[in-house]
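re: the backbone from monday

yeah here it is again, tokenized this time
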């Protein structure tokens, strides 16, 4: 038992007598118990901050060195080199392996600006399916028609639907890490659910080099 005790006792002076003080005894046990109860309460009710991360899908490596890229359904591929960002939609087609209409892949360039050539505007247009439905979910959450957990689970399911945009990111040896991070940030803003950094194919690399020369 914790306590504080003050010893009493009067000294005897010459010719004077002091009244003897009674000892003071304070029991600290209830205060210690209260402190532990409050500490336990705050530990159990506190919400610890969780690191915010964007999951990236890393496919298994393959020994296939052909020029043909992977099949893409409602997808877009970004190619990064130095301070340049190129993209093409759908599958990669080249001479000898053209599309059904005879066309081959052509790269287009984008940047991080706010204009029509900005990557944010491009992603907003291509992933409009998810963004429109997310806006409806935001309104329901604001009106408290759904709770936070339902909102997050529905949004996560929405990002993975076949109508949602899928993104591949490919880089060469000159690509800047800053541009890769900035691009991933833009993908997060656009509510892209499937993001996969993959190896660039020889055909894509050659196509990008030709584009850089122009």
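seq for it, each position gets an aa:
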């Amino acid at each position: 038992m914790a306590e504080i005790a003050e010893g009493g006792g009067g000294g005897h002076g010459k010719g004077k007598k002091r009244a003897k003080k009674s000892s003071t005894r304070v029991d600290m046990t209830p205060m210690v118990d209260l402190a532990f109860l409050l500490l336990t309460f705050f530990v159990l009710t506190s919400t610890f901050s969780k690191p915010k991360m964007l999951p990236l899908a890393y496919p298994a490596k393959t020994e296939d060195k052909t020029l043909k890229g992977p099949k893409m359904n409602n997808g877009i591929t970004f190619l990064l080199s130095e301070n340049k960002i190129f993209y093409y939609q759908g599958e990669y087609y080249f001479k000898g392996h053209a599309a059904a209409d005879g066309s081959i892949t052509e790269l287009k360039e984008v940047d991080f600006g706010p204009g029509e050539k900005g990557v944010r505007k491009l992603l907003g247009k291509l992933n409009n399916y998810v963004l429109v439905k997310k806006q409806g979910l935001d309104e329901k959450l604001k009106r408290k028609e759904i709770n936070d957990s339902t909102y997050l689970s529905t949004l996560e399911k929405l990002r993975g639907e076949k109508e949602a945009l899928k993104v591949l990111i490919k880089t060469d040896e000159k690509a800047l890490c800053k541009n890769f991070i900035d691009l991933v940030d833009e993908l997060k803003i656009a509510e892209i659910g499937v993001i996969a950094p993959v190896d660039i194919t020889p055909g894509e690399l050659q196509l990008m080099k030709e584009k850089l020369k122009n």
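Residues 29-45 form the longest helix (17 residues). Confidence is low (pLDDT under 50) at residues 65-69.
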